[in-house]
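Take a look at the protein record below and tell me what you see:
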Amino acid sequence: MNVSFFIAQRLIGKKEHRFSRPIIRIAITAIALSLTVMLMTLAIIKGFQNEITNKVIGFSSHIQVSNFSNGNSYESTILKHIDSLKLSLSKIKGIKHIQSYATKAGIIKTENEIQGVVLKGVSSDFDSTFIKNILINGKIPSLRKHKRSNKVLISQTIANQLNLNIGDSFQMYFIQQPVRVRQFKIAGIYDSGVAEFDEMLIIGDIRHIQKLNKWSSNDVGGLEIQLHNFEDLEKINQEVYSNIDFDLNASTVFDNNPQLFDWLDLQNMNTRVILILMLIVGAINMISALFILILDQTQLIGTLKALGSQNWHIRKVFIYHSLYLILKGMFWGNLIGLSFCWIQKKFQILELDKSTYYMSYIPIELNIAHIIAINIGTFIVCWLMLIIPSYLISKINPTKAIRFE
């Protein structure tokens, strides 16, 4: 029989003295709040990162294949032999979808406003799943007709700046020799919340760009590749690069949007700081609680020592008692933290300024592995922090302890 565990159980079942009761409650509350904050912080940061990443991928896919000469230009250069290239890339394991695109910079002019934009031309192989999710008005134009479609999608930001709405027409000027003009009609309006795209991107028929650039119907500006698993991005990008010609480049979503992803990476640093601070708060409160428990049970320690108990056995009594308090705090922390995350994920009760945070609500991403890791980490850190202060028991004199009041 584990005597230390038995005595600890009796102490747990016994009501705390008036002196130790508030300290014990504060320690449990501190553990619960620390765990709640850690769970909420990780869920919110991961949700925020995933939401932004999914939006960026929705606009530009996981990998883009284009000419090296493109650089950072909005003017796509011609990409030939597209059918054979698609066939070669489609054999790579892990690729979900391949679609062609081209971009061309232009200027929209209305009666009262003027705005520089980029026309992104897509074809019948365009995967419209993401656009459907952010479409707030109208519909996605059909690109399967033999005739070029003049219907386009614009963002809510551009629509507000130019005072345009569904069904309105506008002229777009393309700066080349000679200057070309095309008239488009608004079929739908989207709103992603990501200013980098909403302020300039218009989605339309790629055949307009092919005509403007004097390309054939099989020529495009590049390929966008979607993957089944985001974790395989770097590996598949290397395979794609090895399967394309020397004058072509394969770039990932990270390469194409470095500033945005660098900013998202900074959130990981904030997460680590918060987790460390919360662990320190919980551990310090448990150390304080353990000291109070030892002080409150000084007579018991003296009695056990007088009966011949070893210091380590007595220390285990208080460690077991403290671990119970840790587990109790962790229970309430998980209950509160996970309940908040579930409510926010389902009902989106806490809102954000979309123009600042790229979304209208606080996103939540719950990951079982993260939840388990936080709980295990909290338990281990708090337990390790109890070992050193429990050493105080070995310094207690049994004669003085028995007479301690």
